Write the structure tokens for this entry.
Amino acid sequence: MTTLTNSPTIIENFDLYAPKLVSKEEFFSAGHRACQGCAEALAIRLMCKALGRDTVITNATGCMEVISSLYPTTAWKLPWIHVAFPCAAAVGSGVEAGLTALRRKGKIPDKRVKSVAIGGDGGTMDIGFQALSGAMERGHDMLYVCFDNEAYMNTGIQRSSGTPFLASTTTSPAGKKIPGNQVWKKNVMEIMVAHNIPYVATASPAYPIDFMNKVKKAREVKGSAYIHCLVTCPTGWRSPSETSIQLGRLAYETGVFPIYEVEDGKYRFTMPVPEKRRPVADYLKGQGRFRHVTPDQIKAIQERVDIEWEMLKIKIASSKSRAEIREQVKS
Amino acid sequence: MGKRIGIEVAIAAAEAAALCRFEVAAVYPITPQSHVAEHLSDIVNDGRVDASFITVEGEHSALSAAIGASGTGARVITATSSQGLLYMSEVMPIASGMRVPIVMIVANRAVSSPINIWNDHSDIMPMRDTGWITFFSENGQEAVDMVIQAYKVAEHRDVMLPVDVMMDGFQLTHMVEPLFMPDQEEVDRFLPPYVPYATLHPDNPVSMGTLAMPDIFAEAQKSKDAALVNSLTVIKEVWKEWEELFGRKYEPVQTYLTEDADVAMVTMGSMGETAEVAVDELRRQGIKAGLIKIKLWRPFPFEDLKKAVKGIRVVAVMDRAVSFGGPGGPVFSEIRSALYDEPARPAVVNFIIGLGGRDIQVVDFVDMMKKAAAGKLAEPYEFYGVRG
């Protein structure tokens, strides 16, 4: 369903509408050390606005703690903890359990404080994957947000399981014999859906209202929620800083990164579906990491994207929520 | 003054944590720690303690969750053993660096390979330098007492460090022993509720676990070291208070018949009790034997050790772990190094014994002591009783 707040035409006039729609309060402050055009820093700023004050953030190791927590400074106006690369979801579980126990015993004020764990694609889809699966399976009242910039960026642009097919990274370089990453990006969304958690969604800071609405929705969920947010990394993608939002939109308009949600098992597009998707070449050409790809390879990528898109459309057309199925089973 | 009961030690240790009114437990089961994990679950699910139990998916997450929970200001318990402790090793220095007062029960067990589920100290020895206060219990009573003492030490404002309590796997964990279980009232009197220094709460936001550049990292490490070294004073105070309340005396280095001893053994953990019987036997045979038991492994009680070895000619250190390719067992190198500057230092020899649950009997200690007294060690360290 198209709503006023997630219509792309409205987003064109963001400056005009944003003050009415978005909190002016900043919880992720200016003065951090992110690169120019870092879509992840922007996404985190938006996420924090949507979450509001009653939040505790657990951060996996990655760009974010490097750019935001350099002692003795901090960019975080929310309580924030960083432990290690693989354990954000586990630490977030502990935060949730600790807050719950202390609140139950009356040791802290009786208000709902949301535990939110964040990590990059490496901390989420690779090294922290076990902890994420464990936390989601246990159903902690926790939101996990993966900020996917499609490689291990702060250690020097090495491939992760979030890296797209044929992307050139420092451990999957476009060599003379092997042209970049040889496998397709891991479909972590489907794995999260398979955990039967109440809310799973994809998002992008290129569509800030849609993203913030999802964060708000996930915050209200009692139980585990997962949001997969695609964030442009100008350094790793070899793209000009000023094109970060443009690339985020192209990822959506080409179907490379569909924006949708799975609520109680029911799939739904949350953005107006483009009648005709743009060719993936439009998305690839602005990025140095795909500089080497041949027309045949672009064709292969296009075919894969088309198939994935159709599969997603089938799920959206046919899926039902658990609540709907419960009614169906009863009657 | 508590009640004397017969109880399995692993269960008693979990009961001790319950007496401390833990608020979050994050535990992954592993033999021979499992009874601790199971009993903590029983305690939570029966509502005997108002706590959350996190059934984590592995030890790495157990300690990670423990840090998160402790960060919120909750009193936290975890427990592990062997491979589980090694799996936690990445997170251990983070806990101590972040100064979260977590208490962990370790059921000591050998590490792979070959895989072996029985007791030795090869799991805790690689954790020596992770910045945790480390207690070694000798029997069930000490395991129970040390769990309670651990919280008081860990949460002391001058310390604020995690504490791990060792109890030998099977030798202690699976034994039913007669011991005094303190009353809830007594423990409440001894251990006040945890008042954290800073917590993860939006009413007063703080950042924990931030990034330190080279200009401050060394200072952070120095302050952690200072906290650990200075914790010795607090540990002694807490043990003194324990003695006054419960009548059971704890010392970092406990001695048995060392005043006039010619030769002495050094032990850690459950072998101390067998060694005590061996000392009696040696004395009956006219050999002036003594025994030194290390109860506090970190911070290492250097001064107490130096005092304990005064006048002794030969000290035989019994190590239950190997430092492969090193100068001898880890306890041995620690003790030899501690005594290096002493003007009148004893000869220090090393036996590596009891690996992977290998039985150590009174006759073995008697034999080793006689060998040590006669200066008959062929190698700098000897794998005692090992074939080939």
